Amino acid sequence: MIVACLALAISLGGTGYAALKLPANSVGTKQLRKGSVTNGKLARGAVTAAKVKGNSLTGAQVNESTLGTVPDATTAQGLAASEAFHVVGAPGQPAFQNSWQNKGDTFDAPLGFYKDRTGVVHLRGRIINGPANTTIFQLPPGYRPASGNYLTFPAACECVTSQATEIAVQGSGFGANVVGSVTMVNGNLATGNSLFLDGISFRAES
Predict the structure, then answer these.
(1) Alpha helices in 61-147 (DSSP H)
(2) Which of 43, 89, 135, 174 gives 20 to 30 Å between its CA and that of 149?
(3) 97 exposure class (CB count in 10 Å sphere: 0-12, 13-18, 19+)
(4) What's the domain range around 28?
């Protein structure tokens, strides 16, 4: 009887040990129930990143609310949103100077400017009837180049001269009458011919 009881105990003990001590690499997809890995219960120290096959999980298995914000995204969220165009000549906006005006065709955008969320100012517009080497309009504070800067940009023009036409944009430091001025230089337009400011951009004063 004693021998029989010892044999039974050893037999049961061996079975229990075998049930708790699984051989290495013996658990696979067939041994895991669908949905059994939830809330990290099975994953605590058992299923680690090294044991998950690369590119095997999809967004459906990820709880998005537990993810932090990507550092670069945090920076982007702190930037001001890009604004709508300020239309030159509109109420509360800079006025045209020296007889300049919009071309006015239905497919032409009016002369305008805006500052994007990175602090870069963009110009656009098709204009006519201004004399050569004159100010078109003056940019308000916050939309001008840094103090002392005199920037020039090539511009498309229906000019009567072959000399390359440029648009000059001035920061402060050049006199109150020209601070922030946007001027056509090296060009001569016939009446009704167009000057284009599309594609001109520069970083605004800080």
Answers:
(1) 71-77
(2) 89
(3) middle
(4) 2-54
Interatomic CA distance for residues 17 and 19, integer angstroms: 5
Q: Positive or negative, the Cα torsion across 105, 110, 120, 202?
A: positive
Q: Is residue 70 part of a domain?
A: no
Domain identity same for 40 and 140:
no
- Tell me, yes or no, whether 146 lies in a domain: yes
For 171-190, write each residue's pLDDT tens digit: 977 776 789 999 999 888 88
Best CA proximity match to 111, nearest among 135, 141, 142, 133: 135
What CA–CA distance (Å, rounded) separates 118 from 156? 26
Residue with tokens 């000549």: 89
Tell me the pLDDT tens digit for each residue of 73-84: 656 566 667 799
Residue 10 falls within a domain, yes or no? Answer: yes
Going across the sheet that includes 126-128, the strands are: 101-102, 126-128, 194-196
Q: What is the pLDDT of residue 187?
A: 82
Question: How many domains would you assign to the chain?
Answer: 2
Residue 158, judged by CB atoms within 10 A of its CB (0-12, 13-18, 19+), counts as middle
Phi and psi angles of residue 49, each rounded to the nearest 5 degrees, phi first:
-60, -35
Instruction: Answer whether residue 75 is part of any domain.
Output: no
